[in-house]
Write a structure and sequence with these properties.
By secondary structure, the chain is an all-beta fold. The protein has strands at about 15-20, 40-45, 55-60, 65-70, 75-80, 85. Helices cover about 0% and strands about 40% of the residues.
């Protein structure tokens, strides 16, 4: 599991990564392309949010956030109010 240790979100911001756990019912993993814009993502780090935890799987508004590249890793930095729900 990758973590972004170089960027700490401030205030109500949340750092998200693509959810790589795309697995079919039969156990096959479906790879995602780099340009695939999925709105289901994984929480990597958070600012002052008390509603989310690291590694929570969330649904994000379609055009939300700012894309951030740290080395070869790509993240999305969003406001907490752009997160529509948590998948349990």
């Amino acid at each position: 599991m990758k973590t972004a240790k170089k960027l700490k979100p401030l205030f109500d911001r949340v750092l998200l990564a693509s959810n790589d756990d795309s697995q079919t019912a039969s156990g096959l993993y479906i790879p995602r392309g780099l340009d695939d814009k999925s709105n289901i993502m994984r929480v990597v780090d958070k600012g002052q949010s008390q509603n989310l935890g690291n590694d929570d799987i969330v649904v994000v508004a379609k055009y939300a956030g700012t894309e951030v590249s740290l080395g070869s890793d790509r993240y999305l930095l969003v406001c907490e109010h752009d997160i529509l729900g948590v998948i349990k």
